[in-house]
Amino acid sequence: MTIFPAIDLKDGKAVRLTKGVMESAKIYSSEPWELAKRFEEMGAEWLHLVDLNGAFAGEPKNLEQIEKIRKNTNLKIQLGGGIRSRETIQRYLNLGINRVILGSVSAKNPELVKEWAEEFPIVVGIDAKNGIVAIDGWGKSEGIGAEELAKIYRNSKVEAIIATDISRDGMLQGLNIEFVRKIKEASQKPTIASGGVASIEDIRRAKEAQLDGVIIGKAFYENRLNLSEAFQIAGGV
Questions:
Q1: Is 212 known to be catalytic?
Q2: 136 an active-site residue?
């Protein structure tokens, strides 16, 4: 199982939101690349990076910091937030991003995303509240069930699915393991749990449930778990 430490970028700073609400942003670092370097030193192999401004704007908004992170670490990076065109995908890959996360467009136009996945390294982000997919920075509902969307990608070249329970994101209430397992079963793809990690016990539960990865954000920033211990429990990549 892979642990993905997370950095969410807002106005060039590393922040965390509560339930995806931009106004709830709490700043943790003005130099996000330093955080990425720290994760690498602690044993991380992957970084989960999100351009929050981009998620709402539908286009890249934190390129300067993304470039700094790429230049200052050897981490593999998966990046999401406002990636809705072939040109943006190519731009990020040219910067050295290892794979891109598609959220809104994966719900709105899955056939296009499946086509892109034939050419580019793509992860689909399925963000849901009460089992219904949310898009555009979680600002509105797409009206499609999360499991239904996951099934669409079953026979595609998509590399993985990130399953986020919005109601738990940033709440430190624990992972919704059952939700993630349902997405994995529906998609038959490697599935990464996101939203709500509260303690090291969540990492143990995810490992026991045979999930493929866990994204850790607020629990690290609020000193709720030891990241090095999380890497040990996960057992590496």
A1: no
A2: no
Superfamily of domain 2-234: Aldolase class I (3.20.20.70)
Given 51, 127, 169, 202, the catalytic residue? 127
For residue 115, the model assigns a pLDDT of 98
Residue/partner pairs of 109-116 with CB below 8 Å, 24 or more apart: 110/149, 110/152, 110/153, 113/153, 113/156, 113/158, 114/152, 114/153, 114/156, 114/157, 114/158, 116/86, 116/89
How far apart, in whole angstroms, are the C-alpha atoms of residue 212 and residue 3?
A: 9
| Marked catalytic residue, from 8, 51, 136, 165 | 8
pLDDT tens for residues 180-216?
Answer: 999 999 999 999 999 999 999 999 999 999 999 999 9
pLDDT of residue 129: 87
Residue stretches of the chain with pLDDT short of 50? 139, 236-237
How far apart (Å, rounded) are the C-alpha atoms in residues 13 and 206?
29
Q: What per-residue confidence (pLDDT) applies to 237? A: 43
